Amino acid sequence: RSSAKLVAPLGCLVSRQKHTLPDLPYDYAALEPHINAEIMQLHHSKHHATYVNNLNVVEEKYKEALAKGDVTAQVSLQPALKFNGGGHINHTIFWTNLSPNGGGEPKGELMEAIKRDFGSFANFKEKLTAVSVGVQGSGWGWLGYNKEQGRLQIAACANQDPLQGTTGLVPLLGIDVWEHAYYLQYKNVRPDYLKAIWNVINWENVSSRYATCKK
Locate the Manganese/iron superoxide dismutase C-terminal domain: which residues (predicted)? Predict the structure, then answer.
């Protein structure tokens, strides 16, 4: 598969450029045995692709509503824009948060920040896992950065609500806990999936995101 870099999703609405499904920087089977190839293929080529396609459709409708000055239509399109735009944003981050060479613990500034804000890496891991397990229905568990306070925070978002757009936190590490992310392999046992996913977390990417958002 292509190793092209993933591009930032959900640009300015006035742009005529349509959103596209980003290539994964690894093969669908690369994360096995922790996440199997069938899940990755369906998750990426079907679920994420649907968010991209629907986002392009709703943006076209939104631009038409803007051009007409139809505020009622603009308001009515907001939920679909949030859901599909959030799905595109969240998954674009999620793919880069995973790696066949992942796992272990972060290093450098990110590790120091984790120790400062959570006491230890083990404590951080336990808290993010607990928050992710506790998401009711579908949603995401996140490690984010609070720019105003200069500290890391853990948060959960329902459905495809994007972290930064709904909480103001800059997303560093997202864990997808929609059933489509794990059900084919882990059935309804979400804790087993969450235990496994730590083996493929791309700490190099998370550290890079942390360094960027601090600038």
Answer: 106-209
Within a domain: 92? yes
Return the SS3 of 46: helix
> Does 91 carry a binding-site annotation?
yes
Residues 142 and 200 in one domain: yes
Q: Binding site annotation covers 176?
A: yes
Condensed to tens digits (0 to 9), the pLDDT of residues 7-34 reads: 444 444 444 589 999 999 999 999 999 9
Residue ranges making up the domain that contains 53: 37-97
8 Å CB contact between 138 and 126: no
Same domain, 116 and 203: yes
Residue 157 pairs in a beta bridge with: 140
Rounded distance between C-alpha atoms, residue 128 and residue 155, angstroms: 8
Identify the residue whose tokens are 């459709």: 57
Residues 94 and 174: their CA atoms lie apart, in Å, by: 6
CA separation for the pair 169, 157 (Å, rounded): 11
